[in-house]
Amino acid sequence: MYTYDSIYEPKQLKYDVAQNIKDDVVRYIFISKGERNILKVIDYSFMEELNGKKLFNFGFGNYDFETDIIEDIELSNNGDTYKVFNTVLSTVPLFFEIHSNAIIMIEGSDSGPEFLDKCRANCRKNCADICKNANRRINIYRGYVNKHYDTLKMDYTFYGGLDSTDNKPTLIDYMPDHKQESIILMKNKNQHSMKVEENQTQEVMEPTSAEEMIALFLERRKQNPDVDLFAKQNARMREKIKGLVLPDHLRLDL
User: Fold this and answer.
1) What is the per-residue pLDDT across 47-86, written as a single tens digit (0 to 9) for each?
2) Listed residue (130, 78, 72, 76) closest to 106, CA to CA
3) H helices within 77-204, ranges in order?
């Protein structure tokens, strides 16, 4: 199997992550160590089961210790953009080691109506009908997939979003170099991985002064285990995928 590390980036160009698996969320956390320390959270949140396959929504953002919420709209500008991006990408194969038959759906947090309303209220670019700041995140993810598509498709099947014509969502084929609102991917059937035991925490953080941030975050999660850090994003995604039916060749219940 082609792996992220072996093909794309050496390990020194990404951060180590701590992994936590509990209930319907697979979570990865790490510290961005640029101009300041920022705790980053990646959640793969279970949405619903579609014909034997579990669909997870991808969420990524900065953890705010004062409010105990995730900020996923503002850009950090912490001086380590590529290292953070590489770290986020490296969690995809880790996730599929746990849920090998799952589906991941990725949309940029700057693609939703909440971002557009907030951006227009503080717009400095004199945008007319189209917001120039919108869709930057999904464009970055799509650019990566386009660049490495021939290699990635050996291990993963990609779709370019949902067609909601007639209020019946269906998957759209992924077309490199075409603008599509989301990325949906699943692992090809010829790939097999060991499943990690649920409720297991694997911490592989490199020793840093930021360990207290990690410890505090994990302690808060123990105190509030049922809090959905990406509640708004997940609610929007659940609404979007209502009625989605997978093509016959992807269904496990046939």
Assistant:
1) 988 878 899 999 998 988 888 888 766 677 888 888 999 9
2) 72
3) 81-98, 113-121, 136-147, 149-152
Give the burial string for 11-26 (b: 16+ CB within 10 Å, else e): eeebbebbbbbeeebb
* Model pLDDT for residues 146-171, shown as the tens digit of each residue: 889 999 999 999 988 777 666 667 78
Measured distance CA(22)–CA(16) in Å, rounded: 20
- Cα–Cα distance, 156 to 154 (Å, whole number): 6
Instruction: Return d(Cα 69, Cα 233) in angstroms, integer.
Output: 12
Angle CA 40–228–245, to nearest 5: 105
Burial 153-179 (b: 16+ CB within 10 A, else e): eebbbbbbbbeeeeeebebbebeeeee
